[in-house]
Amino acid sequence: MSDSVLIIDDSDAVREKIIKTLEVFDLFDRYYEAEDGLEGFKKLLSSPVDIILCDLEMPRIDGFKFLSMLKSRPDLQDLPVIILTGMNDRELKIKGLEQGASDYITKPFDPEELVARVKVHLKIKNLQDDLKRSNELLLELSNTDHLTGLFNRRYLMETLEKEVQRSVRKGGNLSLIILDIDHFKQVNDTYGHLQGDVVLQKVALQLQKELRSYDIASRYGGEEFVAVLPDATLAEAVFVAERVRSSVQTVKFSGALSPLSITVSMGVASFPTANCSTVDDFIKLADDALYRAKANGRNRVESADQTGGPEL
Questions:
Q1: In this structure, what DSSP letter does residue 224 have?
Q2: Catalytic: 223?
Q3: Which of 39, 163, 223, 302 is the catalytic position?
Q4: Cβ(218)–Cβ(255) below 8 Å
Q5: pTM above the 0.85 mark?
Q6: What angle do CA 98, 100, 101 make, to 5 degrees?
Q7: Which structural domains are found in the chain, ordered by start?
Q8: Would you say 59 and 36 are in contact if contact means Cβ atoms under 8 Å apart?
Q9: Series of mean pLDDT values for 10-residue runs along the chain (312 residues)
Q10: How far apart are CA 49 and CA 52, in angstroms?
Q11: Residue 297: CB partners within 8 Å, gap ≥ 6?
């Protein structure tokens, strides 16, 4: 059963007849009514529907204006609209179809024809919705690392490029954290790659937990992860990185991994910074800081110098 229908007509009798006709076939859970396009548009914004039946000639906001209002909203453009017109309104029918209506019903309407046309357009809408969901799922899968559930490197690079451009354009802060699991090769050598995958998943989970909802966490490759923090200063990003480091240290494993304790090393950089004008420059700043974190004993956070290079 479909969810709801909106019927827009200035005639109470017409609206009542349409509702009674559709109720016989149990097509909808909810029926919404409006006397003109303005009232209909307001109801549509507060109560999403699956299909609209709309008269063309109404006071205040007529059907044509209503169709143009739908066009102005990308989230409403795909809603099927069946226009209701008088028997001799050939030009109005054509104009309505040209302005975005999906179909028309001639008044006075035949109940069986009305139901048949509604069913057809509901079926088309359901197919379109299924296709849209499939495309969204495919897009999500193409952007996701299958093991950790974080974004993958391709999505990271695309996002980082956009965020750097936004920072340049608007002058906002942008920070980057690169995380590397310490001695991860030993984990794989000791426990095997399947258990190593468990470790990667645990670290990914801890990283995601410590970030804001609009930060971007991704798997950069192997045992490296990257977090993009929009509107975060270097000091704020270092604070987050320290929180992640501490969180990972507390992770407990079960089964074969129960003896294992892990730590991570992290490099942090911020943008804009002197001598840093590209995404590659930005990543190198954070990567250099990560290298120093490893060189200085691991299980630590190091940050890039704000003058544009690693601190010495």
A1: E
A2: yes
A3: 223
A4: no
A5: no
A6: 95
A7: 2-142 (3.40.50.2300), 153-303 (3.30.70.270)
A8: yes
A9: 86 94 91 94 92 91 91 90 82 85 90 94 90 84 91 94 90 94 96 96 96 94 95 95 96 94 96 84 94 96 66 36
A10: 7
A11: none
